[in-house]
Amino acid sequence: MSIITSQRDLFDIPDEIAYFNCAYYSPLLNESADRLLAGARAKSHPWERTSAHFFEDAETIRTLASSIFGGHRDGYAIVPSVSYGVSIAARAVEPLLQPGDRILVIAEEFPSNVLPWMRTAREVGATLVTVPYPESGDWAKAIAERIDKSVKVVDISTCHCGIPGTPYLIHLTFTIRIRRATFPRIGLSQLQTRRYK
């Protein structure tokens, strides 16, 4: 894997600033800022937009996401926040869970990724398992070691907001897929599923 070159020119970050808190509050890409301004300008002329425009925008985003990350565009949903998306996923998975099943999250995860699963676990009698920060820094190994046939949901972020070291998703995705083949009721929620070559 090659190291990514500097991407500073894609952002409006002065040369004297080094900003690292992206998991908590990331800067916008210049292109994103331009798109936001264009959206605001379109809102200035609401009579020019029809109801079809709202659906067209969402379909464009879903199509672009599927071309970047893989899969069919129908596999992508547009949600206003992580909490909405995870809550919807938790409600969808809830009927498949039974008392004694386990739901796996990682330590000091952002609340939006944890609170819906806490509710689901409480309502169905499942157990919420929190993987502690691994002293080795190897999230993939720490998470994979806790997956057994009682784990039915694995919900982790691609970028952790509170602890350094992002889970090694290539290895972890592979591990979960292998174990999912062995234990078919393991669910994947919010785990990046990009096709790695």
Describe the 3D structure.
With 197 residues, this protein is of the alpha/beta class. 40% of the residues lie in helices and 9% in strands. The protein is built from 6 helices and 4 strands, in the order H-H-H-E-H-E-H-E-H-E. It has helices at 30-43, 51-69, 82-93, 111-124, 139-144, 169-182, and strands at residues 102-106, 127-131, 151-155, 187-189. It has a 4-stranded parallel β-sheet, with helices on one face. Helix 4 links the parallel strand 1 (102-106) and strand 2. It is globular and about 55 Å long.
What is this structure's SSE topology?
Elements (H helix, E strand, L loop, with lengths): L29 H14 L7 H19 L12 H12 L8 E5 L4 H14 L2 E5 L7 H6 L6 E5 L13 H14 L4 E3 L8
Parallel strand pairs: 1-2, 1-3, 3-4
